[in-house]
């Protein structure tokens, strides 16, 4: 779905019962000052959750944003989403104000599948916007006995967030343009060894970092790569 529509079209989209569903907020918690987890409750029985899919939330009269579910339970009718509250964007402002008992509509998930269960080794890269995907895929990786590794580039104040979320087998890097540097990436252990040649690579988060990392992996003849830029400096509604 495009991120911006005329108000009449946005109204029509939000009212479409086959796409958007009523949800109520049960609880909110700030994992860090700019990482907010919200638990929603509603009928999610028609939602198909796949790694790489995202739900749409209307954040203004004319704008929508994509967010990845970090956990869902159809029986209990609950859905968790981890949000990155950053800068002063319309999405961040809207999410920051949400509180328990608020009601809104959330779309069915859609997107492209990124997880290939037939590949034993799984590598996941991202930033704050990728934490939901990481939380969603972790129990799947554990259940299917994968060898897995997470790499995160995070702001300094969020360095301990993966631990607080219960993630495992992760390495945290500071956001100092490291993942914009092809030479630096090429020297990382996961890249500079043939042990991970056949791994499934899932790259999300900052579009520039994703693009650079993907280019290095392609140069190393890594072929199982799924990538999706979630945001880019100066670009709204990516």
TrEMBL record:
FAD-binding FR-type domain segment(s): 18-116
Matching Pfam families: FAD_binding_6
GO-annotated molecular function: oxidoreductase activity
Domain of life: Bacteria
PANTHER family per UniProt: FERRIC REDUCTASE, NADPH-DEPENDENT (PTHR30157), NADPH-DEPENDENT FERRIC-CHELATE REDUCTASE (PTHR30157:SF0)
The name this protein goes by in its record: Flavin-dependent oxidoreductase
Provenance organism: Chryseobacterium daecheongense
């Amino acid at each position: 779905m495009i991120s911006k529509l005329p108000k009449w079209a946005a109204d029509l989209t939000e009212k479409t019962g086959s796409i958007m569903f009523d949800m109520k907020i049960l609880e909110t918690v700030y994992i860090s000052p700019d990482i907010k987890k919200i638990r929603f409750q509603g009928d999610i029985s028609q939602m198909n959750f796949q790694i790489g899919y995202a739900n749409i939330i209307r954040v203004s009269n004319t704008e929508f944003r994509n967010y990845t579910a970090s956990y869902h339970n159809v029986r209990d009718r609950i859905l968790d989403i981890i949000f990155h509250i950053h800068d002063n964007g319309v999405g961040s402002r809207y999410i920051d104000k949400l509180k328990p008992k608020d009601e809104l509509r959330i779309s069915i998930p859609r997107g492209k599948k990124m997880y290939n269960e037939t590949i034993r080794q799984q590598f996941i890269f991202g930033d704050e916007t990728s934490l939901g995907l990481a939380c969603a895929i972790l129990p799947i990786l554990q259940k299917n006995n994968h060898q897995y590794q997470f790499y995160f580039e995070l702001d300094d104040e969020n360095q301990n967030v993966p631990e607080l979320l219960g993630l495992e087998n992760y390495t945290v890097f500071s956001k100092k343009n490291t993942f914009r540097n092809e030479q630096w990436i090429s020297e990382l252990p996961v890249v500079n060894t043939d042990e991970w040649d056949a791994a499934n690579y899932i790259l999300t988060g900052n579009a520039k970092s994703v693009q650079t990392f993907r280019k290095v992996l392609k140069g190393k003849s890594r072929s199982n790569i799924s990538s999706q830029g979630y945001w880019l400096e100066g670009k709204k509604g990516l």
